[in-house]
């Protein structure tokens, strides 16, 4: 499981929504403002108290290792598991994680300090077997793995059978982009083109655009503009300023630009 950012209260939310701590193996920190990483030292310590043995990987800006290890040292705390820090410094997009199912790339953002978003992409799955066709051609079971990889097969009569006659296309790989905190930044669009779900911060409404420029945040309308330019399938807004009493205003503003908009709220689950 991946965790993106770790502000204060993260552990409370994990427990409230019955998410097992042991499932978290990779934590991605966008930047070193407190609301995005002050919960991390406590979480790292809690993992030890829970008897964690699995490795934990933390990806974040340069300085995150020093910050976390210093706090652990000052509190006379330690870990009984391997803790790996992957410090990021590049101002260009780079792949920071890959396994057999997914890749994670950075999305350079524009904030008051060094900040990255993260783009998660599923890898293309193996093709689905058409069992009826496989049996009809008398395909030996020893060939099934290669068939799922897209290779042609040999029938019981020695005939070469085209892969498309034996398989179905796998589901389209899904993608998710997390972009927070950031000012309006058009040059991120090529990196997230055709993304399935875009989470983009929307700290302010359009009436506070001047404050956005000063604080390097975005409006709901600007987030929607990025979603439209990127041809995203769905936009999730979040990171709202507490000055606003109604979150519905953010959705209304974004929908003047982009149709498929949802509001991020505590405990809400989105499926790709």
Summarize the structure in words.
The strands form four sheets. Strands 5-6-7-12-13-14-15 form a seven-stranded mixed sheet, covered by helices on one side. It has a four-stranded parallel sheet with strand order 1-2-3-4, with no helix packed on it. The protein is 25% helix and 23% strand. A hairpin with a 5-residue loop joins strand 9 and strand 10. The radius of gyration is 23 Å and the shape is globular. The chain is α/β, with parallel strands linked by helices and 272 residues long. It starts with a strand and ends in a 9-residue tail after the last strand. It has helices spanning 10-16, 34-37, 40-49, 64-74, 131-136, 144-148, 209-215, 220-229, 248-254, and strands spanning 2-4, 26-28, 56-61, 83-88, 95-98, 102-108, 116-122, 128-129, 153-154, 160-161, 167-168, 175-179, 197-201, 234-238, 261-263. Helix 8 crosses helix 9. The protein has three domains: 1-89, Ribonuclease Z/Hydroxyacylglutathione hydrolase-like (Metallo-beta-lactamase, Chain A, 4-Layer Sandwich), CATH 3.60.15; 90-125 and 173-272, Metallo-beta-lactamase, Chain A, CATH 3.60.15; 128-168, no CATH class. The longest helix is centred in the first third of the chain and has 11 residues, at 64-74. The active site is at 35 (proton acceptor). It comes from Croceitalea dokdonensis DOKDO 023.
């Amino acid at each position: 499981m991946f965790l993106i950012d770790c502000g204060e209260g993260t552990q409370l939310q994990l427990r409230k929504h019955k998410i097992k701590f042991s499932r978290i193996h990779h934590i991605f920190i966008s930047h070193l403002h407190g609301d995005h990483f002050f919960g991390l030292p406590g979480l790292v310590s809690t993992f030890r108290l829970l008897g964690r043995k699995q490795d934990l990987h933390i990806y974040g800006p340069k300085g995150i290792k020093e910050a976390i290890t210093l706090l652990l040292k000052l509190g006379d705390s330690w870990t009984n598991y391997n803790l790996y820090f992957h410090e990021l410094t590049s101002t260009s997009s780079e792949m920071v994680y890959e396994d057999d199912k997914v890749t994670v790339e950075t999305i350079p953002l524009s904030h008051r300090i060094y900040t990255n978003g993260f783009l998660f992409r599923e890898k293309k799955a193996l093709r689905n077997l058409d069992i009826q066709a496989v049996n009809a051609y008398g395909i030996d079971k020893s060939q099934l793995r290669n068939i799922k990889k897209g290779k042609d097969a040999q029938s019981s009569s020695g005939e070469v059978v085209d892969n498309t006659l034996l398989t179905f296309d796998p589901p389209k790989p899904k993608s998710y982009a997390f972009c927070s905190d950031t000012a309006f930044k058009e040059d991120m669009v090529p990196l997230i083109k055709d993304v399935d779900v875009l989470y983009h911060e929307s700290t302010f409404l359009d009436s506070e655009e001047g404050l956005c420029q000063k604080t390097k945040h975005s409006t709901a309308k600007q987030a929607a503009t990025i979603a439209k330019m990127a041809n995203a399938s769905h936009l999730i807004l979040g990171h709202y300023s507490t000055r606003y009493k109604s979150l519905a205003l953010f959705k209304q503003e974004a929908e003047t630009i982009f149709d498929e908009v949802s509001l991020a709220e505590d405990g809400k689950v989105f499926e790709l």
